[in-house]
Write a structure and sequence with these properties.
The complex is a heterodimer of chains A (about 210) and B (about 210). Chain A is mostly helical. The longest helix of chain A has 30 residues. Chain A is globular. The N terminus of chain A is likely disordered. By secondary structure, chain B is mostly helical. Chain B folds into 2 domains: about 70 residues, Anti sigma-E protein RseA, N-terminal domain (Arc Repressor Mutant, subunit A, Orthogonal Bundle), CATH 1.10.10; about 80 residues, no CATH class. In chain B, helix 1 packs across helix 3 and helix 2 crosses helix 3. The N and C termini of chain B lie far apart (about 100 Å). The chains are: A mainly alpha (about 210), B mainly alpha (about 210). At the A-B interface, strand 1, helix 2, helix 3, helix 4 and helix 7 of A face helix 1, strand 1, helix 2, helix 3 and helix 4 of B.
Chain lengths: ~210, ~210
């Protein structure tokens, strides 16, 4: 596939969010679940700048998304969806701290800065040993399977997820068509997903969530 | 579930899938559990890779949130959406409605005043009391009363005394006999006895009780 054929108009990440929001606004719970899956880590990460206890982070993240769902009719798409939920997340975390009578630290972090901000909680244990072990196991599997990938797949997924490059930029860097980049990134993800399957089955049995 | 669908999900989450295909895939994902599980899994991988060292890995929040929302039976997003739309409409409807009411009240006031004035306006076609003195004829709606047997009193229309400017163009020129302040309630035009001597009798057309 040559580059000209690939020059179609893609739905940007922001547009994907907006499409999911519109579906959720119509009452589509599945679309909202997909939005939560997309942003739970980012929201949890932002909350962890203010709160260090893992269970509290998990609970507040949950509260944030319940609030987000209830406030969805007010979202008009003027700002990015993540910027909007980030504000809700920080306010919820601050209110939680106030309710608990704790001091609020670092309350003025912008969404863009939040990802690189440590919050002074380096080397803190966020959770119980069991929960920590489970998450560590998931992460270990992900990193191990990435390490075992063929070099071209590994390079493509690392450039995308860690460097944050677009497919076009990756294609230039790897000197290959965009279609190849698409395929490489997908194959890398699929390989890691296959490695995670046994863990996921174990997790579903343990938590017994209704899905 | 084909590899093509999975590849499309991978492209979609990176914002690299063509618009029509994206819309179609989003609809399919809402209905197809295996596709949405793939979406979740790919995002979990993303989270693991992008997570900062000082952040905890947050997983399974989505399932808990959906469980909590489904337990809140009273909560209905459609109702909230309808309320939000209604309140949005109210935001711009309120001032427009206020202005509309104000305009209606103003219009009605002007209309009523105009009607009231029209009742007192003197037109050329109206019957007149014609004097032979060469003076301008008096309008009929100026009531002429005999007071104490010797004086004829002419009352100007109410519209002239209350709103002199409103009906000025169609009215008889009362300024001839009025004082400077324009507040004179009665105008004595003539002494009946003298009138009999100096003037020929009135010619009265269509004067009513």
């Amino acid at each position: 596939m040559n580059k000209k054929q690939d020059k179609k108009i893609e739905m940007s990440e922001k547009a994907v969010d907006l499409a999911l929001v519109k579906q959720a606004q119509k009452g589509d719970m599945k679309a909202f679940e997909m939005l939560v899956q997309r942003y739970q880590q980012k929201v949890g990460g932002a909350i962890s700048k203010l709160i260090k206890d893992y269970h509290e982070i998990q609970d507040i993240t949950q509260d944030v998304f319940v609030k987000v769902y209830k406030a969805l009719p007010n979202f008009r798409g003027d700002s990015a969806f993540y910027t909007w939920i980030y504000r809700i997340a920080i306010n919820t975390a601050k209110n939680h701290l106030v309710a608990k009578g704790r001091r609020i630290q670092n309350s003025d972090i912008e969404p863009t800065e939040a990802e690189n901000y440590s919050g002074g909680f380096e080397n803190q244990d966020f959770d119980t040993p069991d929960a920590h072990y489970e998450r560590q196991e998931v992460e270990q599997v992900v990193h191990d399977s990435i390490a075992q990938l063929p070099e071209d797949l590994k390079q493509a997924i690392v450039l995308r997820e860690l460097e944050g490059l677009s497919y076009e930029e990756i294609a230039e860097k790897m000197n290959c068509p965009i279609g190849t980049v698409r395929s490489r990134i997908f194959r890398a993800r699929d390989a890691v997903d296959n490695a995670l399957k046994p863990l996921r089955k174990k997790e579903y049995k343990r938590t017994n969530y209704v899905r | 579930m084909s590899d093509k669908s999975n590849e499309q999900i991978s492209n979609l989450m990176d914002g690299e899938l063509e618009i029509n295909a994206s819309k179609f895939l989003l609809k399919r994902m809402a209905a197809d559990k295996s596709l949405s599980e793939k979406w979740e899994s790919y995002h979990l991988i993303k989270s693991c890779l992008q997570r900062q060292a000082n952040e905890p890995l947050v997983i399974d929040v989505a399932a808990k949130v959906c469980q909590e929302l489904s337990q809140q039976d009273h909560f209905n997003l459609n109702a909230y959406t309808a309320d939000a739309k209604r309140s949005t409409i109210h935001k711009w409807l309120k001032p427009v409605l206020g202005m509309g009411i104000a305009a209606s009240v103003a219009f009605m006031s002007v209309f009523l005043i105009q009607n009231k004035n029209d009742a007192g306006i003197i037109t050329n076609e109206q019957p007149t009391i014609a004097l032979q003195t060469g003076l301008k004829p008096l309008p009929v709606n100026i009531s002429a009363n005999i007071v104490s047997g010797s004086q004829s009193i002419v009352k100007p229309p109410a519209s002239l005394s209350r709103f002199p400017s409103v009906s000025a163009k169609n009215t008889y020129n009362y300024n001839q006999g009025f004082s400077q302040t324009n507040t004179m309630p009665y105008l004595i035009i003539l002494n009946q006895d003298e009138a009999k001597k100096q003037l020929t009798p009135f010619r009265i057309n269509n004067i009513s009780d």
